[in-house]
Design brief:
Layout (H helix, E strand, L loop, with lengths): L7 H35 L13 H10 L5 E3 L5 H6 L5 H9 L38 E2 L10 H16 L16 E6 L6 H13 L3 E6 L3 E2 L2 E2 L9 H4 L13 E6 L3 H18 L3 E6 L19 H9 L2 H11 L5 H46 L4 H13 L5 H14 L6 H22 L26 E3 H15 L3 E5 L15 H5 L4 E3 L4 H13 L3 E6 L6 H11 L2 H4 L9 E6 L12 H7 L4 E3 L4 H13 L4 E6 L6 E3 L15 E4 L4 E5 L1 H16 L4 E5 L2 E3 L6 H9 L2 E4 L7 H12 L11 E3 L9 H6 L5 H15 L9
Parallel strand pairs: 1-2, 1-3, 3-4, 4-8, 7-8, 10-11, 10-12, 12-13, 13-15, 14-15, 18-19, 18-21, 21-22
Antiparallel strand pairs: 5-6, 9-16, 14-20, 17-19
The structure holds thiamine diphosphate and magnesium ion.
Length: 803
């Protein structure tokens, strides 16, 4: 061949070759990380490994189509993609495997999540938003399979809102709604209800969501024949294909080892989703698991010889390599040189990650050993302490548990002694704990200056012509003020749009603010929640409405696993300040009585749980939450919409403080603590008690999570010396939590003259009808008699027994 100047075609081929080579190098890097990662687990350096081997090639194609501003919501196989978008390097990969607690070394979760759970940083140090349009984004993964689906819907919907709703400041979040939300899921996990719910909802909403199914025919050991009808997800979803005049999906099916075809499919998929906001399904099949599912177990146990042989032949990496050789991109020899070089780099990166991981612990070990040896010198238990010191010193690569076990156990040998070295040891342990504990516990809630309990209260204002109105009107008019004040706010839920919610708290709002901001949704609580999470992660202020508190259970898994853990699992690098609006407490029967508060409290740490007793308080909570940056559930009182309350003048501005209780009636004899609809009954009962000479103090908790941050309840108990918690949850439910907060955390036991008690509902769900409620939940008579009983015990002369 003559050496003349290059033609355009040559240049194009050169560029093409360069790009393919660069892709191949990323894939080889990723594969080597998987191979070495498994070895690190098997040799005991890491606890567990789950890797992306066998899924590399489609992820290269996805990364090529993925643009700044886009979001991923995926699962543990996506390391190649993360590497390809520049969000994960070799050292970080291994830092994740080891669980390095320094976010600078392990940017995915600062060691909180097992390796393979990916994330990018949406927030600056101070908790404010970065410009998400200038980076490639990944929402933080969770382990529950298909748990990434509901949030994916919201991430996609945000683009639609940013494109179509006028007046929002989009600067940090969107460029004309051009961003795609990319989902990834394993074939077996498509069996989950959350997958189907999300697929249907995205088809209805027509949002830019590209759903990728990585199909390797297995879910751990379980074959597709047990997972998927016809063993073929794209086949059974064919009915979602959009047609002339219908909504729906574009559906692609492509082999996971076919690099050029994958690249082409992903470009086409992205184009349609980005431009038309049409959701896309890409079923990527014929994928493999070269090392089996994870480090716990081997796939030889459940795959046939034929299947295993097929997996070797169709390994996407070897297929890509073969294709590159056939297309003169490199020769076998050149490939080997590249591969060898990458192997070296991966080993080097792994070593660097390990050195960085053990370094701080080694330094801490040296400190601890020195302090133990010093403590040993003058101790009568010298021999025992030295033994602990020497054993700690002998550990080659110590972990923090070993350091604390040795130092804390030493204290037991020093109980009878006093010395400066003992004091030094005590101080060292407490400083060490104070330094290390946050690495494992910080950022469950916001630590920014916008955290909810930093937002100052503002009382509702009333003027001379303020009227008593149906309380639902306060809710409605306050929402009106909110939608005007915050263009980025929006509300959606079953019946929330056209009719303005089942209790008319949103009456007329859709007409005024449009169908995108005040919208009806399908009956699908988990994805209503997911819409909220995803949109909140992209800077909007969604209010997700769950029609009745009883149905929040459908969304509870996603609240607990995704929303509640988000700040924690990213060590404060992502947030979703979602407001969940719902209505509950007493109304009718088993499924409209909203009582499962204990369950919520225990499964939602990380989300605030607010239980206002009336609509003014509830509206005030929404106003507070919108100024803050944290997620919360607000439970409105189902039976309160038609009660009369005075219409405040400062709608949209008055704020109910979070974590602050309110004493609604002062009293001297007993402290009655309750919340929500039951509080009203307690208030009524307090009047009846007054008639028999019992002066009860009534406190409205208002906020179950966080709980009485000023410790006001104990001040009341200090005065009355008696405590009764009244709650409509099951016995030992929310009331047990409340009692622990007051008696143990606030030390109220010190002031009690009577046994602290709880009055809860029956163990069963409430029966239907007024009598059903009366015989199931605490009634005024129950409360009266319980209080009277306590007073009778204290002073039988003054309060002779009722029965
Ligand atoms: C809700 C839930 N159930 C079970 C598990 C345990 N589990 C982890 S991965 C997995 C199989 C997933 O298979 P698939 O979706 O095909 O993904 P693959 O690992 O094959 O890529 C299972 C059952 C889980 N993490 N979450
Ligand atoms: Mg699978």
């Amino acid at each position: 061949m003559s050496n003349t100047s290059k033609t355009t075609k040559d240049i194009t081929f050169d560029d093409f070759k360069k790009e393919v080579l660069s892709d191949y190098k990323i894939a080889v890097t990723s594969r080597e990380c998987s191979l070495l990662g498994r070895r690190e687990v098997l040799t005991g350096k890491a606890k567990f490994g789950i890797f992306g081997d066998g899924k590399e090639v489609p992820q290269l194609a996805m990364a090529k189509a993925f643009k700044n501003g886009d979001f991923r919501s995926g699962y543990y196989r996506d390391q190649t993609f993360m590497m390809a978008i520049g969000a994960l390097n070799i050292q970080q990969f291994f830092a994740g495997l080891y669980g390095h607690t320094d976010i600078a070394e392990e940017p995915m979760s600062a060691g909180r999540q097992m390796g393979g759970h990916f994330a990018t940083h949406s927030l600056n140090e101070d908790g404010s938003w970065k410009n998400l349009t200038q980076q490639k984004n990944s929402s933080a993964d969770i382990s529950p399979t298909a748990g990434q689906m509901p949030r994916l819907l919201g991430l996609a919907q945000a683009s639609k809102i940013y494109r179509e709703v006028k007046g929002i400041n989009t600067e940090k979040f969107s460029v004309d709604g051009n961003e795609i939300a990319w989902g990834t899921i394993g074939n077996a996990s498509t069996s989950e209800g959350l997958f189907f719910e999300t697929i249907n909802a995205a088809g209805v909403l027509q949002v830019p969501m590209v759903m990728n199914v990585w199909d390797d025919e297995y879910g751990i050991s379980v074959h597709a024949k047990h997972q998927t009808t016809k063993e073929n997800i794209s086949e059974i979803l064919k009915g979602f294909q959009r047609e002339e005049g219908t909504n729906g999906y574009e559906i692609f099916k492509v082999k996971g080892w076919d690099y050029p075809n994958l690249v082409d499919v992903y470009q086409r998929a992205a184009a349609v989703a980005r431009k038309e906001h049409c959701p896309v399904l890409i079923h990527v099949n014929e994928l493999t698991q070269p090392q089996g599912h994870s480090t716990s177990g081997s796939h030889e146990r459940y795959k046939s010889k034929e299947r295993l042989a097929w997996e070797v032949e169709f390994d996407c990496m070897s297929k890509m390599r073969q294709w590159m050789i056939e297309n003169n991109i490199f020769t076998d020899e050149e490939a080997k040189i590249i591969e060898k070089d990458i192997q070296k780099q991966v080993r080097k990166g792994k070593q660097a990650a390990w050195t960085a991981f053990v370094k701080p612990q080694k330094e801490e070990q040296v400190e601890a050993v020195a302090i133990l040896k010093a403590a040993a010198i003058n101790s009568s238990n010298k021999a025992f302490i030295e033994k602990l010191a020497n054993e700690l010193e002998a550990i080659k690569e110590p972990i923090r548990k070993e350091i604390l076990v040795a130092t804390r156990k030493t204290l037991r040998y020093l109980t009878a002694e006093k010395s400066d070295t003992k004091t030094a040891l005590i101080n060292w342990i407490s400083n060490y704990k104070a330094k290390i504990q946050p690495k494992y516990s910080a950022n469950l809630y916001s630590e920014s200056n916008l955290k909810a309990d930093n937002i100052n209260a503002e009382a509702p204002k009333y003027n001379d012509d303020s009227e008593m109105v149906d309380a639902r009107l306060i809710m409605r008019d306050n929402f009106d003020a909110i939608f005007t004040k915050y263009p980025e706010s929006l509300i959606f839920g079953e019946d929330a749009g056209h009719i303005g919610d089942v209790n008319q708290g949103l009456e007329g709002m859709q007409e005024k603010y449009g169908e995108l901001r005040v919208s009806d949704t399908g009956i699908r609580e988990a994805t209503i929640l997911g819409q909220g999470i995803g949109m909140a992660m992209r800077g909007l202020r969604p209010i997700a409405e769950i029609q009745y508190l009883d149905y929040i259970l459908y969304a509870l898994q996603i609240m607990s696993d995704d929303l509640a853990t988000l700040q924690y699992r990213t060590n404060g690098k992502q947030k979703a300040p979602l407001i969940i609006r719902t209505r509950g407490h007493r109304l009718e029967g088993i499924w409209h009585s909203g009582s499962q508060m204990g369950g919520l409290i225990h499964l939602m740490r990380g989300i605030h749980l607010l239980v206002p007793r009336n609509m003014t308080k509830a509206a005030g909570f929404y106003n507070t939450l919108l100024e803050g940056d944290e997620p919360a559930v607000v439970v409105e009182c189902l039976n309160g919409y038609r009660l009369k309350e005075k219409m405040p003048a400062n709608l949209g501005d008055f704020k109910t403080p979070i974590g602050v209780v309110e004493t609604v009636k002062e009293g001297a004899d007993i402290t009655l603590v309750s919340y929500g609809s039951t509080l009203r009954i307690v208030e009524e009962t307090a009047k009846e008690l007054a008639q028999v000479g019992i002066d009860a103090e009534v406190i409205d908790i208002q906020s179950l999570l966080p709980f009485d941050i000023n410790h006001d309840i104990v001040k009341s108990v200090q005065k009355t010396n008696r405590l009764l918690v009244i709650d409509e949850d099951v016995p030992g439910g929310a009331s047990a939590y409340i009692l622990q907060e007051i008696v143990e955390k606030q030390d109220a036991y010190r002031f009690l003259d009577s046994k602290p008690q709880t009055l809860a509902a029956k163990e069963h769900r409430p029966a239907y009808g007024t009598d059903g409620d009366y015989f199931s939940k605490p009634s005024a008579e129950d409360i009266f008699e319980k209080v009277y009983d306590m007073m009778n015990e204290a002073n039988p002369n003054k309060f002779p027994s009722l029965f």
